[in-house]
Write a structure and sequence with these properties.
single chain; alpha/beta; Immunoglobulin-like; 22 helices; 27 strands; globular; signal; Glycosyl hydrolase family 13 catalytic domain-containing protein
Length: 675
């Protein structure tokens, strides 16, 4: 912790050009340790299969299933079946979004220089653990990526456009191995040094560039299953699935549990005539018994025990299951002992697993690597999701992905300014206990609700009381997330100006920014009625298109340059991560359409002689544009630097004039007079 604190202090000194060190007590106040252990970070989420194909030899990885050597009959049959299935799981045309597209760990490794130049500090890798090779056919679904906003098939294959292959390693079978689509297949695959070599290189070379790596870890479910081996002639109007694992769980290739055993039978010969054989279901008791799931009104029990998306749901109440999963956590925390370890975990499916397991997981991490990062992606979590606040209160060491704030951000800048998309929601979500609604009495809140219903707020006081201000500043914000539609796909009328303003607001706000791969270049699929996912048009899996690079169609160089500058600004000015926030309401501004936000350390404003870090950052945005005049204390602001320009310009008597185009945002560094 001391080493990290010193590094942060040095960052402040370099970024501000200061020669005076912060005193230890003041440094601890400015940069407190928080749940989840995120520092002044910028996260970058990578769907590995969609990032870059660095090793084409693993696109159809038959080498992982050899047919030669000393193999018993079941293994040989298993390998033959996988080899037959693998060619149908890969789509080199990048048109069928539910199939594998060829990205791999070698591709991430080859793009580390790009990521270092962008300036991000932590890479979040989508699941890389070994996934079952399965193919699901679901007539009526669409997984075909259209080029244009018009309805025609563009030559789409009717089979593959309705097929799924689990490309992002959500159909897990072995939590202790790397998936063969993502790793190096050279050398003897029975040797761990060969199977894991590419990940070790990636960790070490990312570490050499100052970047850590978080692994996404799905701990909720396994793979699709069949209830029989009777493959009937294919009928394009009937659902079908092909695969060999049937929800089984493995440890380093050895099967430890099954969901359905098709080789055993619970038939009886004690009756006459004998009952026909039927498969054994859940013979080791590793899975929850299936219960119906009401997606509109799910109970906690449904979320924890129902088979989400029809996948076998692991029973973490079973001590053997919990021990297996926690052993996997230890395995990855201890991985690469001679080099750079993983930085921590990005954990989805939080409400789908009981809170006692999450408590045991954080205790395990505390025992093995107390400084490991833990980011909890509780769907729709944040101040306005009571269940997520309750979960957060019962745990001790997780940062939370702030869906409540991020959803409000997306709606506001997408001009979708209903209940969640109001400026009042954004302001009060940021201000927390410093917001006026929190400090109103019950009578004041009632009067305000009657007189100003559009400015009423749904943030429970209990939520603000449970979460400390320091911990809230360590929550993770996003413009795009791995589950939701990319904002440019969901809001087709959104301008590049508005999109850039949304990114600037995320980087200027408290919390830790997360970029979804391609955000920096404007990556998005067309707003097409057939590009529909669980969260609307452009949603998963259509938000997981192939990454674009400089020179590719759709690459936005101006946006990339802006994002790169924002990442650097974030690293140069820790006030954006750790500072306080206040909002301004200049003349001519519209409170329900415009945002003027100042980031600063309050105690520096009150006692500047005690604080060498007196930097302030102003975020200014106007929906309709206009001229604005902001009034600051002239003893605190002498010049202003527009982060889009090179040179600062002087300020007279603390007055900062601003001209904003419609939907334009500016981020300004307010510089103090020299002592």
């Amino acid at each position: 912790m001391i080493r990290r604190l010193l590094l942060l202090t040095l960052t402040v000194m370099v970024g501000l050009g200061l020669g005076l060190p912060l005193c230890p007590a003041r440094a601890a106040d400015l940069f407190p340790a928080v749940r989840g252990h995120l520092d002044n970070d910028v996260l970058y989420y990578i769907t590995v299969d969609r990032f870059y194909d660095g090793d084409p030899s693993n696109n159809i990885p038959t080498a992982a299933f050899p047919l030669e050597g000393d193999l018993d009959a079941p293994t040989l049959a298993y390998n033959r079946a996988n080899q037959a299935l693998l060619p149908h799981l890969y789509d080199g045309s990048h048109r069928y979004v539910n199939l594998y597209w060829g990205g791999d760990l070698a591709g991430v490794l080859q793009k580390l220089d790009y990521l270092q130049d962008l300036g991000v500090t932590k890479l979040v890798l989508s699941g890389i653990q070994d996934s079952a090779n399965s193919l699901l056919y679901n007539p009526g679904s669409n997984g075909y990526l259209y080029d244009q906003v018009k309805i025609n098939q563009n030559g789409a294959d009717p089979f593959y456009s309705q097929a799924s292959a689990g490309f992002n390693q959500v159909w897990l079978k072995d939590w202790f191995e790397l998936d063969e689509h993502l790793r190096d297949l050279t050398g003897d695959q029975r040797q761990p040094k060969n199977r894991f070599q590419i990940l070790r290189r990636l960790l070490d070379e990312a570490g050499d560039r100052g970047m850590g790596i978080l692994l996404e870890l799905n701990l909720n479910s396994t793979s699709p299953y069949r209830t029989d081996l009777d493959y009937k002639p294919f009928d394009p109007h009937q659902s079908e699935r092909w695969g060999m694992d049937n929800g089984a769980v493995y440890r380093h290739g050895d099967r430890v549990a099954e969901y359905i055993s098709l080789t055993a039978s619970n038939s009886s010969t004690a009756i006459d005539p004998p009952a026909p054989p039927s498969p054994l279901i859940n013979p080791q008791g590793w899975f929850h018994e299936p219960i119906p799931l009401d997606y509109n009104r799910p109970t906690a029990t449904m979320l924890e025990q129902a088979p989400i998306n029809g996948l076998p749901d692991l029973n973490q109440e079973n001590p053997q299951v919990a021990a297996y999963l926690l052993e996997a956590v230890r395995f990855w925390l201890n991985f690469n002992p001679q080099g750079v370890p993983i930085a921590g975990f990005y954990l989805p499916s939080i409400p789908n697993i009981n809170v006692e397991f999450w408590q045991n997981l954080e205790q395990t991490v505390q025992e093995v690597r107390p400084d490991a990062l833990l980011v909890a992606a509780y769907g729709d979590g944040g101040y306005r999701k009571a269940a997520s606040v309750d979960w957060y209160e019962k745990t001790q060491d997780y940062s939370l992905v702030n869906y409540s704030f991020s959803t409000a951000l997306r709606r506001f800048f997408g001009q979708d300014r209903g209940w969640d998309g109001r400026t009042a929601v954004l302001r009060e979500s940021i201000l927390g206990k410093a917001g006026r609604y929190y400090n109103y009495g019950s009578v004041q809140r009632l009067i305000h609700w009657i007189l100003n219903p559009s400015e009423s707020l749904e943030i429970p006081r209990h939520a603000l009381d449970v979460v400390s201000e320091a911990d809230a500043k360590g929550w993770v914000n996003f413009v795009d997330s791995p589950e939701q539609p990319r904002i440019l796909s969901y809001y087709p009328a959104m301008t590049n100006q508005a999109y850039g303003s949304a990114l600037k607001f995320m980087f200027a706000s408290e919390g830790v920014p997360l970029l979804l791969y391609g955000d920096e270049a404007g990556l998005a699929v067309p707003h097409h009625p057939q590009h529909s996912g669980p969260f609307g048009i452009g949603g998963y899996p259509f938000n997981q298109q192939m990454m674009i690079w400089p020179g590719d169609g759709g690459w936005n160089d101006r946006l990339h340059t802006m994002t790169r500058s924002l990442v650097q600004l974030r690293r140069d000015y820790p006030v954006l991560r750790y500072g306080d926030t206040r909002f301004l309401f200049p003349a001519n501004a519209q409170a329900d359409k415009d945002l003027f936000m100042v980031r600063e350390f309050e105690h520096c404003t009150q006692s500047p002689q005690e604080c060498p870090d007196a930097s302030r950052i102003l975020y200014a945005y106007s929906t309709e544009g206009g001229n604005f005049l902001l009034n600051f204390d002239e003893t605190q602001v002498s010049s202003v630097k527009d982060t889009d320009l090179d040179d600062p310009y002087p300020v007279l008597q603390g007055l900062v004039p601003l001209h904003l185009q419609p939907e334009e945002a500016k981020v300004l560094v307010l510089q103090s007079p020299s002592p």
